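To whoever is covering the structure queue this week,

Two jobs came back overnight. Logging them here so there's a record in the thread.

Job A:
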Amino acid sequence: MSVQGKTVIVTGSNSGIGLGIAREMAGAGGHVVLNSFSDTEDDHQLAKDMAAEFGTDVRYIKADMSKGEECRALIEQAGACDILINNAGIQHVAPLQDFSTAKWDAIIAINLSSSFHTTAAALPMMRKAGWGRVINIASAHGLTASPYKSAYVAAKHGIVGLTKVTALETAQEPITANAICPGYVLTPLIDEQIPDTMKEYNMSREDVIKNVLLERQPSKEFATVEQLGGTALYLCSDAAAQVTGTTISVDGGWTAL
């Protein structure tokens, strides 16, 4: 599958899932815009290294996804947007009565409102180009819930709803909107947590992964960033031209329970 010459903007993409998807897009010939809230030499070097590795144009643009005006400025600064992948997100876990207002506001802003702002800015560009793809990285928590994750679950359910609205408003155009709903994905952040969890539960690495981290994931295997990138590439293909307003679960059977 190819996105040769398409401009691909991936929010929250200097690490983890976003970076993994961005790499798959660059490998398929896309002109990739990386993004995060920082603006370091490492951020820009990451873009240069990806460009050299894949032989395509890769840029890094700073934008704080908690601020609507910066979300829209990211799209404008990119100059074009054929494929928008809304990935930026944060997490906080606490019981409802202890969940701070500041944490709630930040999660809703970054995990939900940012996608509204970027999509609103990108759709005119897609319409002008005569083609477009909006791919929202939701979560298994966009389809089900867990305790202590009120803001995250609310935001991810909101992303699924926003995806459907976007799809309906573009249904008679060559633009689609879909949500990918990952379960647990093995990223460096998750991998770093495993040794501490092993000590906490006095378990082996394998037992921690299967019985603690992947307790709700029936496959007992992590999804990978490459699998998510491959799913995104499929949604950009001609084969998916009539796939819109959907959620695609990459969760090892979690939401089948």
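Job B:
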Amino acid sequence: MMIRRHFTYWTAVLLFILAPVLLQAAELASGQKFGAENEIILTYHAPVDKTTMQDGGMYTVFEESDPDIRLEVQKVGISGDGRSVSLLFAEPLNTAKTHVVSIRDAGGAEIESLKVAKSYIGYLLSILISALLVNNFVFTKYLGLCVFFGTSKRKTTAKGMGVVFTIVMVASALMSWFFYQFILIPYGLNFLQIVVFIGLVSLTVQAVDTILRKVNPILFNSFGVYLVLVIANCVIIAVPLIMANNNYSVFETFMLAFGAGGGFLLALYLMSSVRERLELANIPTTFKGLPIAFIVAGQFAMAFLGFSGLQLF
């Protein structure tokens, strides 16, 4: 019994030590990642056979969620040391989704199958930055303009509305995710999602209205009717709808809502800073008020187009 136990122990230790060698012998990939917008890079422990691995027909690539749609490998490149293989595709890849790379030999037998995906933390941050800058709901999607123009006359009011808006956005989005995942989907009530989302937003705004009325009456009075208009604000409704359409997790929903709220706060603060200066500027009478505000907003929208295609992760 003791001999068998020692034998099992030393066998496990030997396999652990020889595991890297066995992996190299099988030429299993040591890493895989997305490169350019249409590139997947595979890294191997040992140099590969360049003649064999440059055959594009060896590779079968598809999105994990759509295994029936195969992505065409346009070109295969191998680094000078033979340890890195680059797969180039005819179309840009949707790097938000996990891709599967299956490598087969000449006889059609599968050599190995790899999954390529972004770091989940990087994916979450990309959702945040996208909602904050790249796809800013005000300057690129032109949503929420009523509240935007109504509360961007003073920086104090703009900051207060931006913070309140972000709180309402995050709270209503998380509640919408919970109701969508555990009530609407299980009971087949997806067609009621807009009604349910509006009800949850109304509940959140009413709670904020009551709290703000008691805690900071001055800020509450400065919002006027615009705090109530948050209920029907299209940005507030857009976030739960995007969440439901993309089937986001709770962390992804939080990042989307926080980024959208932060983007609205940023838009309000930028606009209020300019509008305070415009009051001292020599503007033609016909352009004073909303006309010049629309012109400035259009210029901000053109500036935010510079973030198009930005990818940090």
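Note for Job B: The longest helix spans residues 155-184.

Please reply-all if you pick these up so we don't duplicate work.
Q.
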